From TrEMBL:
GO terms for biological process: stress response to cadmium ion; stress response to copper ion. Residues 111-157 form a coiled coil. Residues 115-150 form the UVR domain. Gene3D superfamilies: UVR domain (4.10.860.10). It comes from Bacillus licheniformis. This is Protein-arginine kinase activator protein.
Length: 159
């Protein structure tokens, strides 16, 4: 979920704007943890609706409802214990990404960003071909070729 400054101001009641002009990440994440099950698949909805089975962290004894209330885990083991609970939320927050990509210094890994972009486009191309969206696939193919040509040109300049 991406929220621009304007949207955050417009939704100040739902995101609890604080006196410094920002909004509370805790309240935003709490809202995501309490999301409407109609937007999730049935297995995700079941994770949030099993009051008889309270999962506890073996190390610090924290429960998922306690995490939902505080917005913080008690220890590092909580991440493993509640993994199946937080993965759907992280997918929603991070536009489907659940793997940390990190930042790459421009001087050292300038081409790495382009390579990752090419990999992502190739995955998208395969999906479009499976869905028989051939016109969109052709556009993606052309983008891949263009990026690969730029990448090869940069390699030749470095040599």
């Amino acid at each position: 979920m991406h929220i621009c400054e304007q949207c955050a101001k417009e939704n100040s009641e739902s995101y609890s704007m604080n006196e410094s002009g920002g909004f509370s990440i805790h309240n935003l994440l709490s809202g995501l943890l309490n999301f409407d099950s109609s937007f999730t698949n049935s297995s995700e909805a079941q994770l949030f609706q099993q009051p008889d089975q309270v999962l506890r962290c073996k190390k610090c004894n924290m429960t998922f409802p306690e995490f939902r209330k505080t917005g913080r885990f008690g220890c590092s083991e909580c991440y493993k214990t509640f993994h199946s609970y937080i993965t759907p939320v992280l997918r929603k927050v991070h536009s489907g990404n659940t793997v940390h990509a990190g930042k790459i210094p421009k001087r050292i890994g300038g081409n790495l960003h382009v390579r990752r972009q090419i990999e992502a486009l190739k995955k998208e191309l395969k999906e479009l071909i499976q869905q028989e969206e051939f016109e969109k696939a052709a556009n993606i193919r052309d983008q891949i070729r263009s990026l690969e040509q730029n990448l090869n040109a940069n390699k030749e300049e470095e040599d």
